[in-house]
Amino acid sequence: MTTSPRRYHITTFGCQMNKADSERMAGILEDMGFEWSEDPNDANVILYNTCTIRDNAEHKVYSHLGRQAKRKQEQPDLTLILAGCVAQQEGEALLRRVPELDLVMGPQHANRLKDLLEQVLEGDRVVATEPVHIMEDITKPRRDSTVTAWVNVIYGCNERCTYCVVPNVRGVEQSRTPEAIRAEMAELGRQGYKEVTLLGQNIDAYGRDLPGVTPEGRHKHTLTDLLYYVSDVPGIDRIRFATSHPRYFTERLIKACAELPKVCEHFHIPFQSGDNEVLKAMGRGYTQEKYRRIIDTIRDYMPDASITADAIVGFPGETEAQFENTLKLVADIGFDQLNTAAYSPRPGTPAALWENQLSEEEKVDRLQRLNHLVGIKAAERSQRYFDRIEEVLVEDRNPKDPTQVMGRTRGNRLTFFSSDIAQLKGQLVQVKITEVRPFSLSGEIVEVRHPVTV
Ligand code: SF4
Fold first, then answer.
1. Which residues lie below 8 Å from residue 230, measured CB to CB, with a gap of 6+?
2. Domain enclosing residue 404, as ranges
3. Residue nearest to atom 2 of ligand 1 (CA)
4. How far, in Å, is the centroid of ligand 1 from the Cα of 162?
5. 13 within a domain of the structure (yes/no)
6. 438: confidence class by pLDDT, cuts 50, 70, 90
7. Average pLDDT, stretch 85-94?
8. Where is the Radical SAM core domain (predicted)?
9. Exposed e or buried b for every residue in 405-442, given b needs 16+ CB within 10 A?
């Protein structure tokens, strides 16, 4: 097989943080003169950006990698890179396990890809997993969308949730400066992007590591202050942020979201469990009562806000009654969407070593029961959109129906309607909702008539 020179392919597993890291690494490769190859078999640099949150994702990585390792035996100039959380966790051991691998690099090293790859191209096998201070603003991401973009605001996490590998693999919190974040958003605005999602593993921790205290004694730079600071970036019409932690979610932040017109009324706040004992075992640092109070406060300020979350079922020791508390929370709150997962023990985390693990059958049974309820509640929540006019930011063509375009409401509901993508991509459009489904909507474009001023 012939491969054209200097082509790369990246396969990304896992969360938005990984997707944002992949976009930055793609930008670095393009700066180095590499071109994107849709087909990995036609690329001579292959990068897997990996995730350890689920067993499934980890197994997939090894099967992809195995195929390319075989290919490398016939094509020795192929460069194989394993980045992300599996790389961080396994480190040097990976080079022994997969002798064809050239570079193993943890997520904190994403911005260093050029240096690391140059060492590889000179003939070294390289492991980069030591903690580093993340280098600021040297990368220009190659973004997958031309309408919406992610902007990292804080890397790492200082929490110690007992099920989570993130603190081990992504290191301690490192906030970017408000100036650097605003500059990146301004550049996105100039390039025609319309929506920015500010990203952090625990975004409410933003600014705690930056210097400065206010006269009232709080950190000078908080997520709330950041939202005010970036809320008027020209060209950017919508701002979102994720992922929030209930322990640090403040009324001040909620007030800012209500006040700032560009900040969307959509809150992604994982609760993980509706039972206080389980929350304690998870090391989450809040109670279900506190979580409910946060949602009540959001709804006091913004009655129509969308609420989405993450939940885990089958955590070690979770009893049927404790699981039912999660069902009760979900029934009471009525989430617009809930990402659910059965607990899976991750190496290097405290909960993985506990003896009170639940059987797979129990976990699957609970997951199914929870998902059933989530579908019912999401369908109920969708009803409120029926016959309403919603503002939709058009992102792309509907891949299943080229006569339709798709975009999202401010509440983050995926919405489809008939129109021409060439005319509407990146536009904010008023859409009358004519059909509602649990997790998406359909509608018709509304002619917007501007009021006549006399
Ligand atoms: S807050 Fe908890 S679950 Fe989230 S990344 Fe940090 S340790 Fe993991």
1. 178, 181, 182, 185, 198, 236, 239
2. 389-445
3. 161
4. 9
5. yes
6. very high
7. 85
8. 143-380
9. bbbbbbbbbbbbbebebeebbbebbebebeebebeebb
Does the CB atom of residue 201 touch ligand 1 within 6 A?
yes
CB 36 within 8 A of CB 26: yes
Domain stops at, among 354, 383, 412: 383
- The pLDDT assigned to 124 comes to 85
Phi-psi region of 138 (alpha: psi -120 to 50; beta: other; left: phi over 0): alpha
Q: CA torsion sign, 345 to 348 to 349 to 351?
A: positive
Nearest alpha carbon to residue 277 among 248, 310, 316, 247:
316
- Among 232, 88, 221, smallest CA distance to 165 is for 88
Predicted confidence band at 448 (pLDDT cuts at 50, 70, 90)?
Answer: very low
Question: Does residue 159 sit in the same domain as residue 280?
Answer: yes
For 192-215, b/e burial (b = at least 16 CB within 10 A) is ebbbbbbbbbbbbbbbbebeeeee
Distances (CA, A) of 363 to 77, 123, 350, 356, 357: 45, 47, 19, 13, 10
Residue 51 marked in a binding site: yes
Structural domains counted in the chain: 3
pLDDT, position 219: 84
Distance 237 CA to ligand 1 centre (A): 29
- How many angstroms does the Cα of residue 304 sit away from the middle of ligand 1? 28
Query: In the prediction, which pLDDT does 214 show?
Result: 84
Quote the mean pLDDT of the chain: 90
330 and 372 in a single domain? The answer is: yes
Q: CA 93, CA 97: separation in Å to the nearest integer?
A: 6
Regarding the beta carbon of 166 and ligand 1, being less than 6 Å apart is answered yes
Residue reference for tokens 């990368």:
139
Q: 338 forms bridges with which residues in the sheet?
A: 309
164 is in an annotated binding site: yes
